[in-house]
Specification:
Helix content is 49%, strand content 15%. It has 6 helices and 5 strands. The longest helix has 27 residues. It binds 5-O-phosphono-beta-D-ribofuranose.
Length: 169
């Protein structure tokens, strides 16, 4: 958990091995000062634990869940089936360059949505940014930080453009 604040976001991954990618989500939440917890919960290997986590999450004050998993990536969908908290799925490139996990995450049948991000690190970063955007709906300070982040990101692109267009270093 970040600091002493109770977590508002849960970053959940299907395997410890997923952390190398999912730590990108953690880094973004740190940057925005959003409290979180990082969990290893498998939809397949610990089905009951997964169910208990998802059911208890809302009462524990969790507002958004980011779930990263590879291969037959059911984690996000299974968690979403047990809670109405928004669930953001991050497909990981564990096998078949992530196409398997992408389809598993994005193809939720109607009724239980999962917000599917890009495969891998971009998805982990965007998962955290999407969580920040959801939390920012009720937090003007966070909304301001998100706008500043976007502006700074845009400035970096303009610096690169100037370098190529004007030959500046
Ligand atoms: C998924 O299967 C995990 O999210 C992980 O990406 C993948 C493989 O897990 P391990 O068998 O390597 O632990 O459940």
């Amino acid at each position: 958990m970040s600091g002493k604040m109770p977590p508002t976001v849960a970053i959940v991954m299907g395997s410890e091995k997923d952390y190398e990618v999912m730590k990108k989500a953690q880094e973004v939440l740190d940057e925005f000062g959003v409290s979180y917890e990082v969990r290893v919960i498998s939809a397949h290997r610990t089905p009951q634990f997964c169910q208990e986590f998802a059911i208890a999450a809302a009462e524990r004050g969790i507002k958004v869940i980011i779930a990263g998993a590879g291969k037959a990536a059911h984690l996000a969908g299974v968690i979403a089936s047990w809670t109405t908290i928004p669930v953001i799925g991050v497909p990981l490139a564990g096998g078949m360059v992530g196409i398997d996990a992408l389809f598993s995450t994005v193809q939720m049948p109607a009724g239980v949505p999962v917000a599917c991000m890009a495969v891998g690190k971009a998805g982990a970063v965007n998962g955290a940014l999407f969580a920040v955007a959801i939390l920012a709906l009720e937090d003007s300070g966070l909304r301001k930080r998100l706008a500043e982040f976007r502006a700074k990101q845009g400035e970096k692109v303009k610096e690169k453009d100037a370098k190529f267009y004007h030959g500046k270093d």
